[in-house]
Amino acid sequence: MTNHVTTKWLGEMAFESNNPSGHTVRIDAGEESGGSGAGLRPKALMLSSLAGCSGLDVVSLIKKMKLEVEDFKIDTIANLTDEHPKYYDSVVIQYHFTGANLNEDKLKKAVDLSVEKYCGVMEMFRKFAKLDIKILYHHK
């Protein structure tokens, strides 16, 4: 299976990229790089892809396991190399679960399954970055 995405220049430093979902995303450089800052930055978008991919896995497993979670977010904190081409050489991925009745063992299992088995974006990141997975439970 292949994915085909078309990214069209809009002028200045802005682009619009389509997606097989039918939605589009605007990509733009910051003002310090000649853009207007009216879009998402490409490297940061990779972190959103990483969190989104794993998050979809985890939510799917939360539903299958019938777990009670009031709030769930993922923070991705990446270190960018100093030399060009700059890339992420390490990423901390923090899974935050909030709720009154959190089953920590099962939530950890859900995260582990995503990280180790299901998330293709995670596997791609593994090829170029050190990943540090953290799970934080916020009991209400």
Structural account:
With 140 residues, this protein is an alpha+beta fold. It has two domains: 1-40; 42-139, GMP Synthetase, Chain A, domain 3. It is 32% helix and 33% strand. Helix 1 crosses helix 2. The longest helix is centred in the middle third of the chain and has 23 residues, at 42-64. The N and C termini lie far apart (44 Å). This is OsmC family protein. Pfam families: OsmC. InterPro entries: KH_dom-like_a/b (IPR015946), OsmC/Ohr_fam (IPR003718), OsmC/Ohrsf (IPR036102).
Characteristic key phrases:
6 strands, alpha+beta, GMP Synthetase, Chain A, domain 3, three-stranded antiparallel β-sheet, globular
**Whole-number count of domains:** 2
Architecture of the largest domain, CATH level 2? 2-Layer Sandwich
CATH topology of the largest domain: GMP Synthetase, Chain A, domain 3
Strand content: 25-35%
Please state the CA-atom Rg, rounded to the nearest Å: 17 Å
Q: Calculate the terminal CA-CA distance, rounded to whole Å.
A: 44 Å
| Share of residues in helices | 25-40%
Helical run tally: 3
Give the helix/strand class. alpha+beta
Shape: globular
- Low-confidence segments, given as residue ranges, are none
Number of E strands:
6
Strand order of the largest sheet: 1-2-3
CATH superfamily membership of the largest domain, which one?
K homology (KH) domain
Q: Write the H/E string, N to C.
A: EEEHEEHHE
